[in-house]
TrEMBL record:
Signal peptide location: none
Superkingdom classification of source: Bacteria
Native organism taxonomy: Bacteria, Bacillati, Actinomycetota, Actinomycetes, Geodermatophilales
Protein's recorded name: MFS transporter
Ranges for region Disordered: 198-220
Membrane topology reported for the UniProt record: Multi-pass membrane protein
Gene Ontology CC: one annotated term: plasma membrane
Domain Major facilitator superfamily (MFS) profile: 14-413
Pfam families referenced in this protein's UniProt entry, alphabetically: MFS_1
Length: 415
C-alpha cells in the first residue's frame, strides 16, 4: 500500500526545479519587455503597430495552448517543456536580428506558440508530481519563481536597452536556453511519475463533502481528460477565477493603472510604479501562506478569500480617486492574487487525470483570453465612459469567480 502523504513532507524535487526554470524564464521576459516598444519604433511604425507586435505573442500563445496540451498527453511534459523553451529562445534571438517589422511580428508570434508549450507542460508536470496534500504549496512555489523573476527583469532590461534595443533579445534567448538545459538535466524522465496512487480522492460532484474515488485513466483514453474535468464544478470555478486573473492581473493592471495614476490622480508615473510594486510585494509575501491555507484549510474557502479580496480591492478604485485608496487597493489586490496564483491551479490538479494536458491547456487559455480581452474592453470603457466604469466591469469579472467558488462543493484534500 502506498504511503499517504503527510503535510510535513517536503515538496518533490521537481517543484524546486520548475520554480528555478520559472524564475529564469520570467527574468528573461522582464529583460526584453522594456525593449520591445523601442525596438519596434526603430522600424518607423506608429503606436498601434507597437501594440500589435506585443499582442501577437499573447494571441498566438492563446491559439496554440490547446495543441500544446495535446502534445503533453502524447509526448510527455519534459519533451514539450524543453521544445517550447527552445522555440522561444530561437525566435527571440532571431527577432533581435529582424530587419523589418513583418518579420519581427512573425517571429514574436512563433515565440507565443513555444511559450504556450512551455507553460502548459510545466504546469501539467507540477500538478502531476506534487502530492494532492501539497498542490497548493507547490503551485505557490512555482508562481513565486515567476514573480521574483518578473520583479528583477525589467530593471536589467531597461539598462540593456540603453546599450541597444537588440541586446535584450539576445540576453532573453540565452536565459531561455539556460532554463531549457536545466529542465533537461534536472527533470530526469525516471523521476517524472505521479506521486499519488492510482485511486485518487476527488471532489464530490454532489457537493456532500465526502471524497469520491475514481481510478485515474491512462493518458489519452476516453475515460478521463478534459471531459471529466468539465463535469466538475470545482474545475469550472477554477476556470472562471483564472479568467479574472488574466483580465486584471495580466491585463488591466498593466494597461490601465498607469494611465489612471497620471490622468485621474494627477500623479507621476513613479506613483504608478509604487502601486504596482506594492501589489507585487504583497503577492510575493502572501504566496506560500496562501498555498498552505489551500492545502490545510481547503480549496473552496481559500478561493473565496482570494476572489473576494481581489474583487473588493478593484471595486475600491470605483470610488472617488485618492492616492491612499489606490495604494491600499493595489496591496490588497496583491494579497488576493497570492491566493489566485495557487488555489485554482491546485484545483485543476485535483480534478485532472495523471497527465491532464488538455485540462491544463484550457485553464491557461482562459487566462490568456482575459489578458487579451481585458485591456481592450477596459480601454474602450475608459474612452467611452470613465476609468471608474472600466474598473467596475473589471471588478465584476473578478466577482464572477467569487460566485463560481460559492457554487463549488466542499473539496476534500487528501492528507
Amino acid at each position: 500500500m502506498a504511503r499517504r502523504n503527510s503535510k510535513a513532507d517536503p515538496l518533490p524535487r521537481e517543484v524546486g526545479v520548475l520554480a528555478i526554470v520559472a524564475f529564469v524564464v520570467a527574468l528573461g521576459f522582464g529583460v526584453v519587455a522594456p525593449a520591445i516598444p523601442l525596438f519596434v519604433r526603430d522600424y518607423g511604425v506608429g503606436t498601434t503597430a507597437v501594440g500589435f507586435a506585443i499582442s501577437a505573442f499573447a494571441f498566438f500563445r492563446f491559439l496554440s495552448a490547446f495543441g500544446g496540451g495535446a502534445l503533453v498527453e502524447r509526448l510527455g511534459e519534459r519533451v514539450v517543456l524543453a521544445a517550447g523553451l527552445a522555440i522561444v529562445a530561437v525566435t527571440s534571438g532571431a527577432a533581435g536580428l529582424a530587419g523589418n517589422f513583418p518579420l519581427f511580428v512573425a517571429l514574436r508570434a512563433a515565440g507565443g506558440i513555444g511559450s504556450a508549450m512551455f507553460t502548459v507542460a510545466a504546469l501539467s508536470l507540477l500538478l502531476r508530481t506534487a502530492p494532492a496534500a501539497h498542490r497548493g504549496r507547490a503551485a505557490a512555489t512555482y508562481q513565486g519563481g515567476f514573480i521574483l523573476g518578473g520583479i528583477a527583469g525589467p530593471a536589467a532590461g531597461g539598462f540593456l536597452a540603453e546599450i541597444s534595443p537588440r541586446v535584450p533579445f539576445f540576453v532573453y534567448a540565452a536565459f531561455l536556453l539556460v532554463a531549457g538545459s536545466v529542465a533537461l538535466v534536472l527533470l530526469r524522465p525516471a523521476a517524472l511519475r505521479p506521486v499519488d496512487p492510482p485511486v485518487t480522492p476527488a471532489v464530490d460532484p454532489g457537493g456532500g463533502g465526502e471524497p469520491s474515488t475514481a481510478a485515474v485513466p491512462p493518458p489519452g483514453t476516453d475515460g478521463g481528460g478534459l471531459r471529466v474535468a468539465l463535469r466538475s464544478r470545482a474545475y469550472l470555478a477554477a476556470l472562471v477565477a483564472n479568467l479574472g486573473v488574466g483580465w486584471v492581473l495580466f491585463g488591466v493592471r498593466n494597461s490601465l493603472v498607469p494611465l489612471y495614476v497620471t490622468e485621474e490622480l494627477g500623479k507621476t508615473v513613479a506613483w504608478a510604479g509604487a502601486g504596482l510594486l506594492a501589489g507585487s510585494v504583497a503577492q510575493a509575501l502572501g504566496l506560500l501562506r496562501a498555498g498552505r491555507l489551500s492545502d490545510n484549510w481547503g480549496r473552496r474557502p481559500s478561493l473565496l478569500v482570494g476572489t473576494g479580496l481581489a474583487t473588493t480591492s478593484i471595486a475600491v478604485l470605483v470610488l472617488p480617486p485618492t492616492t491612499a485608496a489606490f495604494l491600499l487597493a493595489m496591496a490588497a489586490f496583491g494579497l488576493g492574487a497570492s491566493f489566485l496564483a495557487s488555489v485554482p491551479a491546485a484545483i485543476v490538479g485535483d480534478v485532472s487525470p495523471a497527465r491532464g494536458g488538455k485540462a491544463v491547456a484550457v485553464f491557461q487559455m482562459v487566462a490568456d483570453l482575459g489578458a487579451v480581452a481585458g485591456p481592450l474592453a477596459a480601454g474602450w470603457l475608459t474612452d467611452t465612459y470613465s476609468f471608474q466604469v472600466a474598473f467596475a466591469v473589471s471588478a465584476g469579472v473578478l466577482g464572477l469567480g467569487f460566485l463560481a467558488a460559492l457554487s463549488m462543493p466542499r473539496t476534500v484534500t487528501p492528507a
